[in-house]
Write a structure and sequence with these properties.
By secondary structure, the protein is of the alpha+beta class. The chain has 3 domains: 108 residues, Butyryl-Coa Dehydrogenase, subunit A, domain 1 (Orthogonal Bundle), CATH 1.10.540.10; 100 residues, Butyryl-CoA Dehydrogenase, subunit A, domain 2, CATH 2.40.110; 141 residues, Up-down Bundle (Butyryl-CoA Dehydrogenase, subunit A, domain 3), CATH 1.20.140.10. The chain has a 4-stranded mixed sheet with strand order 1-4-5-8, with helices on one face. α4 runs antiparallel to α6, α6 runs parallel beside α9 and α9 packs antiparallel against α10.
Length: 369
Amino acid sequence: MVKKEPKMFPFFTEKTERARKQAREFGQWLKPRDSLIEDNQEIGAEVLARLWEEGFYGYLVPKELGGQGGSILELTLILEELAPISSSVSLSILIEALAILAISQDSLPERSAQRLVRVINQRRLLAFAISEPMEREFSTRAQECEDGYKIYGQKIYVNQAEEADWVIVLAETTPGASLFLVEKGSAGMMVSDNFTRSSAQGLSWAKIIFEGVKIGSEQMLGEPGRAERICESALSKSASLVSGMALGLIKAGLNKGNSTPAQAMLKNVLGLERFFAESQIGLIAGEALCYQSGFALDRAFPEAESQALASKIFTTELAYRFLSRLSELVGSQGVDYMIEWKKWLEFAGLLRSLLGSNSFLLENLYKKK
């Protein structure tokens, strides 16, 4: 009887491997289209339709509601494959997943289910509006009025703001802060000032202004004043997904640097071989932290959310430092490879700031301890 070698990650199943395989096949189709996405500064109807058909946008929605019924670990592997191919597409999938995680935590399960069914059946893109113009100052407010609320204020750096059909808005209420699901195009709502960035140019990154946007009480997500816990949970679970994206950038950089053409061109770069070996060790540690956090989140293990945040901090810093150092070491000798490495470096820089800067997340993790 042949003894099987133990798996490094025993919680990987046929289903997780199918998810990775599906992403790789989709990535092959997507790769020649990504330059057009960046040039046109939009994902485009063809790619959007394919994303819905593949089920990537509704991956975390239960099957009985029309989604894929997938796990966070599976979606982490999908984003790991897609991040180096298209920053815009992988970021769009992440934002949709973040919003779905928030909607799933509604205090009324029936209302949550109805909304998720509409997301799938009507192919609704989502955005998550949290950031305020003045850091650490909460100015967006929802004032109670007859039959609901009126929202005043503005949110900045909203990913997928222009493309979204629904926007989840964090606003101050009495008591505390609450979340609202706002229909794009509502009277008094305006998307403006699309911010520029060097990565993920196929996805909008904009300011949303609210001037007395009228919404019904039924558009609240969860209970009044409970926004903090919903946001914290959704952001923490999404951290595992960001971690997977960072791993994808590291692996792509290593694979390209270790390819035969690259080795022939870069053979005289001092310290490169040792740098790759050290980076491989960091990658192994990052994989363990990322995959285990995804597995723990899917099973609601204690401390799983903190582990996911730690994974996001570790892997995004690792990706950014790896690609920065690689560019420094290679310099002009790697001119044929620098365009792609630079693109990945810019995206790694963006991933560091997603869901909150790493320094901010680290500070919060320390407080929890």
